[in-house]
Amino acid sequence: MTHRKKKATSANVAKETKSAMASLMAKAGFNLSDEQLERFWAFYGLLVRYNRELDLSRLVKFEDIVVKHFIDSIYVSRLYELTPPLLDIGTGAGFPGIPLKIISPGMKIILAEPRHKRVAFLKKVIEELGLADAEIYPHLVGEHSSFAVTTVITRALESVEDTLTRVRHFLPRGGKVVFMKGPAAQQDLEELSERNREMFSAAADREYILPGSRHRRRLLVMEKQEDYRRETYRIMKRAGESPGREITSDDNKTFRDFKKITTVEGIKKTGRMLVAGRKEVLDLHGRHPSLGRSLIIRDGYAEERPEMRELIEEYRGRDRLYILRKGLFGELDIFNTASPLLEAETPPVPPWEPGSGVGCTLLVPFQDPSNVGAVVRSAAAFGAGEIVLLKEAAHPFHPRAVRSSGGTVFYGPLKRGPSLQEAADLCASRSLPLIALDAGGESIENFTFPERFLLLPGVEGPGLPAMLRARAVSIPMSGGVESLNAAVAVSIALYAWRTQG
User: Fold this and answer.
1) Which CATH number characterizes residue 89's domain?
2) 473: domain range?
3) pLDDT tens digit string along 399-417?
4) pLDDT digits (tens, 9 = 90+) for 364-398
5) Both ends of the chain: CA-CA distance in Å?
6) CATH code at position 418
7) I need a surface site. Which of 300, 375, 422, 449 has the fewest CB within 10 A?
8) CB environment 466-499: b (16+ within 10 A), e (fewer)
9) Looking at the domain assignment, is residue 355 inside a domain?
10) Residue 224: exposed, middle, or buried by beta-carbon count in 10 A (0-12, 13-18, 19+)?
11) How many Å apart are CA 324 and CA 84, to the nearest integer?
């Protein structure tokens, strides 16, 4: 008999407590559906069960939890329209995110909480309450974080200044940051930095009394006014959380393959190259998008420019984004650009057909890749009809050639030519006008270039054989200077030709 009475009393208490919860909610203006009430009740049960073990909340009384956690979390939705997706920063045991999700089940929400015990609790809540489109970000939100959200909300004690600084790099223009504050929030606003004052403006500012209590609250909503975005890419501790494929060891086969194509031998053998420099990478991708294979960035790389962020996301979507430890990245980034490297197929260079060019056809014998790149850049700038790379010339897609060309090797009128001697023989047999660039030639100041001709500079150091200097032009110099850099000399000659007549 006594046992039955206790059982009935326990059942009555449980029923009464759930009814009390519904009553408190109704007084605050929330008439919960049966499903919503069941979820709030289940959430309450989990809080009570795990609070002592996991240190979830200082509130332990039933009414305090309902009013100061549940109602406090959802009342903001009556004061301001929250646009999903929603990021809840410093959610702790799930406030305000979980209550907001219960009353708006279709809202996509991300709960950001770095403390492991609370993350475990949040996972249990999401599972037991059956909350779809609710995910957990188990890290501190910072410069490395990125979210596709339009609204950030927080009940955390952090200042408005620190939170805005924490989220401004990923929040889009027009995105909102919703602060659930107490009456002392005015000091936060007065302490805002000049940068955050420029970037954000107040979209809402409302003081109110929390229903069911005498506690004063203040709702602040800050709206982002700029397009500024900054994405930081890091190798994460947990497997599978990094935004790209991780390479952390020089024994990695892919890294060894990348290392090979920093040399001309590797480029020739594989037909692939590494392109360094933001401009060069974007230029190649824009002109020849099908040539790109992989994009390589260093751990901690941060990017603000939209066009480069788009490229990174494209390769990330193709699962061809690699994130390397800084030391490994430095072995590939031979120019210390610190910007993304593009692994790409080398563009095709068609064979030269002697006599097909118009204006100036430049023959390039240079063995220094930097000179090759520089002269290609100048030839393209001054409008040379063809740029013929002789067999003696350095590879046009050697990293140093690409760098000194400013990317011009990707779109200049390059042709694959014969050897220096073979080119000379072709000119002789076909009566093609060959003009050498040599210190012993006629001064370029008095020279008249023909309508169509081939310009041949000498190889660095030895210059040209005597038989190729029969018709030559020279660049006058002041006494005491023995010679000009090969690429500089060609640039001057091309300028003289271009400005002739």
Assistant:
1) 3.40.50.150
2) 360-498
3) 999 999 999 999 999 999 9
4) 999 999 999 999 999 999 999 999 999 999 999 99
5) 119
6) 3.40.1280.10
7) 422
8) eebbeebbbbeeeeeeeeeebbebbbebbebbee
9) no
10) buried
11) 34
